[in-house]
Amino acid sequence: MFLGQTWHASRATSITFDETFFLGTALHTVRDHKLDPRLVAAGVAPVPVILAYLPALAGEQGAERSNLWLGEMGDAQKILRPRMMTAIVFGLPLIITMFLVVDRRCGFLAATLAAGLLSGSPTILASGSLATTDLAFGTASFLAVLATASWLDRPDQTRFVLWAAAIGIAIAAKYSGVFLLPVSGLFLAWKEWALLVGRRYGPISSHDWRRLSVKVLGKYLALLALAAGSCWFCHLLQTSGALKAVPFDQTAEYSPWIKLLGKGPIAEAVMTFAHEWIPRPSPVEGIFFQFQHSGWGHSAYLMGNFSKFGWWYFFPCAFAFKSTPVELAITLFLIGVGIRAAIITRLHPGRIDPLSLTVVVSTVIFCGLMIASPLNLGQRYILPVYPLLILLGIDQLVRKISNRPVVLATIAAGLLAGQVVSSRSVSSDFLVYFNSFCGGTSHGRWLLVDSSLDWGQGLKELKRFQDDHPERLALKYFGTALPQDYGVRAFNVDEAPLDVDSVRYFAISATYLQGDYTLEVDPFHPLRQLEADAKAGESILIYDLEQPDRRKALAASLAKLPDSKTSGEFLRWTSWRE
């Protein structure tokens, strides 16, 4: 079910923003037999590229690309194998692991239900049909949570090492995996405290507290060291220059080094040593870039509003908009179970089984960090939540009605049917899915854009439209692929001024139409007030300029473009003019 849908979807959509960059770095890596340093320098963890791209591109020969964010001819075919590798290497293990865990805890029927819900989720299918980092991170973080629960259940040395290794791999899959560090620290402290309380029959003395603190700190440092080693190994043990990039006398006043150490002779000695003698492991550079990115901010769109540093409620809204009715029902069910456990039964953490406790705490911490994040780039960033919700939801459901097999089978059939209906409602472009509660897929662009709806994947649909309507077309495209690579013949409005009377159709990506990435100018507001005459999927809207109101609105919009200086300007592709 999963492979069939992702195989079809991977061939029905054009290459997306990040895939162009990953493809370029992977081809460079294959050619030079060394991980392209530009990958980590851009804040991208390498595991997805190493496992999905490198095996798929092993026989390719690629020249140096001056701009890794700009696609080239032939990319449309090159991306197909990495996409299928992503589904096989990261998607199948996630689904199989889900089945095995639930089967062990709840039986075959519940395991089938959990695996079916996961393989029918539009969020999972969207990432499974693209060769990006999101599904890799979802799988790696899921396995890390299971490793945490395994150690919590039986804290021996072997499980401790596996736990640390799983955390390192998750961080090397996507640097958002650092959320596992506070999770692990919390469970280490809680487990050691529980063991101490279990051994003591009287009050805990201050000496006991000191010993506990030292023991927890020692174990946590050991865990961090093992996780760091695992993460660095996944970066192929590469370094990125000196730990401190510039000498002491060139260090800026706002540098973290100055803020932490000051400017005295000791600070100078430390910074000089770090600059001249200590190499900087690649993971350090990648994680540091992400912290910098948070400080810079990033253009974001939510329900007609724009922000560089996002909103705390962005991800809750994205989850509500893009989750299926079944996934929302499971979420509400779990919230109800949690409230009942906290208020009515007053359940103590020690009475919760390790896996349920780990899933709850990990989900809460991850969601809390995402809500606090100033980067609201898309719903795909919360993909790890979905496997955890399905695992916990099915587990709790079975516990409630395990003695009523007919009811359980009926509910399972209904949930699976609902999930399949939701995933099939968007045919093959799972990225554009929005549930019916918020207006459905056709209303999606008024709620979210960018990678939650329009990530450059609509060129194949645009080609189908152009085959039926061969008149001249102008295009404002949000993406990194070359339209020519998909057979699209279009005038690029970013390349040169457009005479609106010289073309019949104007196609524009939903992200630009809604005003995102236009530095608050919102040039296409006049055009947005008019109903599109056609669509290429849901990500590209098309206007027939034979109608005077559309031509007038487009002219007014294009008049603002020279001043807007869109942030996508460096992605301009060279059109050819018929």
TrEMBL record:
Glycosyltransferase RgtA/B/C/D-like domain segment(s): 85-193
Transmembrane stretches, start-end: 39-59, 80-102, 108-128, 135-152, 164-190, 311-343, 355-375
Protein's UniProt keywords contain Transmembrane: yes
Cell location: Cell membrane
Protein name, entry field: Glycosyltransferase RgtA/B/C/D-like domain-containing protein
Any Gene Ontology CC annotation: plasma membrane
Bilayer topology term: Multi-pass membrane protein
Keyword terms, alphabetized: Cell membrane, Glycosyltransferase, Membrane, Transferase, Transmembrane, Transmembrane helix
Gene Ontology biological process terms from the UniProt entry: lipopolysaccharide biosynthetic process
InterPro entries to which the protein is assigned, alphabetical: LipidA_mod_glycosyltrf_83, RgtA/B/C-like
GO terms for MF: pentosyltransferase activity
PANTHER family found in the cross-reference section: MANNOSYLTRANSFERASE YKCB-RELATED, MEMBRANE PROTEIN
Record bears the keyword Transport: no
